[in-house]
Amino acid sequence: MAIAIIKTGFYFGPLLFGMLFIPPVTAQIIGIMGWTPPLGMAPLAAGFALGGVWGLYAQWRGSWLTWRP
What we know:
Layout: H1 2-11, H2 13-20, H3 22-33, H4 43-61
């Protein structure tokens, strides 16, 4: 049972990273830089949007940084 949970966690790793690590970091960066997110969003909500999109992209493509067609 534990092995199945670990395998599932590794499979969804990019998405989990995008939804659990990127949002608070993005919110902190937005706050430190004094920026305002678009559409009147809260900084954390903007981080969740960015992290979710980037995590889904990484999950789908299998890589975080490659922008190949």
